User: Which sequence fits this backbone?
């Protein structure tokens, strides 16, 4: 590919109406401009300019070349400007990683249970890590999960609730998951039966169905 300066010199010579005026504007000797254009014509294999003592103008090939050269120079300038702007203006996406300990710096809502202190005991869902205990000073204590969900939607603070309680609000955009790779606790569901011996097949099938399907419904 040709040196882009040759395209620039050619456009300037045409725009200024000759080598003398272009050389004066660019502060480049007329002989240098003439030599560069001659080299360009030689490599392209066509004459781009008609040069006589009485007349200066472009050939048909020169007019075609001029139109494309102007576009190339404009695009080159835009490309350079775009990169320079990226260096001087805030652009792009900045990704910040939050850790569980950061949660204690935000307003919190807590599910109140007897004998349970207001802390979140967090563990990673897929990686084997030590449990992280996050002490809280809750803005709101309640044993009503739906009420806590509504308080979170209104922006009162961060809350840890079962996935099935918040699933629809997350999908609708009313709530956003914080630290999605972490779990704030487990729940145990116990089925009480009067005796294990002689359990009806229908009851056994029902319990097996619960054990298989219930975990799927409570996850986000």
Assistant:
């Amino acid at each position: 590919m040709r040196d882009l300066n040759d395209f620039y010199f050619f456009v300037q010579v045409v725009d200024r109406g000759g080598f003398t005026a272009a050389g004066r504007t660019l502060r480049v000797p007329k002989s240098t401009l003439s030599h560069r254009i001659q080299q360009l014509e030689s490599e392209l294999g066509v004459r781009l300019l008609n040069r006589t003592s009485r007349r200066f103008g472009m050939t048909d090939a020169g007019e075609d070349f001029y139109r494309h050269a102007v576009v190339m120079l404009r695009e080159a300038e835009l490309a350079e400007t775009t990169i320079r702007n990226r260096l001087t203006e805030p652009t792009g996406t900045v990704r910040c990683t939050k850790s569980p300990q950061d949660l204690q710096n935000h307003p919190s809502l807590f599910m109140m249970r007897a004998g349970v202190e207001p802390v979140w005991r967090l563990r990673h869902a897929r990686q084997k890590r030590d449990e992280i205990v996050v002490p809280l000073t809750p803005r709101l204590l309640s044993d009503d999960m739906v009420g806590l969900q509504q308080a979170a939607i209104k922006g009162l603070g961060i809350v840890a609730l079962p996935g099935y309680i918040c699933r629809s609000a997350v999908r609708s955009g009313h709530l956003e998951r914080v630290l999605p790779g972490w779990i704030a606790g487990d729940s145990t569901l116990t089925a009480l039966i009067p005796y294990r011996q002689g359990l009806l097949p229908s009851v056994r099938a029902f319990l097996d169905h619960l054990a298989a399907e219930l975990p799927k419904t409570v996850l986000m």
